[in-house]
Amino acid sequence: MQLEFKCPECRAAGLTPDLPEDKAIAVTLGQLRLGCPHCSSIIEITEPRAQVLARAKVSAAAAAGESLSDVVRQALQAEVERRAAEKK
Question: Exposed, middle or buried: residue 23 (CB in 10 Å: 0-12, 13-18, 19+)?
Answer without folding.
Answer: middle
